[in-house]
Amino acid sequence: MTGLEVLQSVEFLNLKGQQVAVLDVETWQPLIEGLETLEDLQITKKH
């Protein structure tokens, strides 16, 4: 799933008067892993 597809899959709900963004766990987990990989690459490039 591309980054754009992830963003398009976000659902917005009103919960107790607040708007929240919801992603299913099958989308969330790879997104976090990808962001962690990017962070690791940035750290590696700095050293």
Uncertain segments are none
The ordered H/E elements are HEEH
Distance between the termini: 31 Å
User: Which sheet architecture does the biggest sheet show?
Assistant: 2 strands, antiparallel
> Into which percent range does the helicity of residues fall?
55-70%
Helix-strand category:
alpha+beta
Shape: elongated
What is the average of the pLDDT values?
Answer: 91
Total number of beta strands:
2
Strand content: 15-25%
How are strands sequenced across the largest beta sheet?
A: 1-2
Annotation field: number of helices: 2
Give me the Rg, rounded. 14 Å
Written account of the structure:
- The chain contains 2 helices and 2 strands, in the order H-E-E-H.
- The protein is α+β, with helices and mostly antiparallel strands and about 45 residues long.
- It has a two-stranded antiparallel ribbon.
- Helices cover about 60% and strands about 20% of the residues.
- Strand 1 and strand 2 form a beta hairpin.
Task: Explain briefly what this protein structure is.
With 47 residues, the chain is an alpha+beta fold. It has helices spanning 3-8, 25-46; strands spanning 11-15, 18-22.
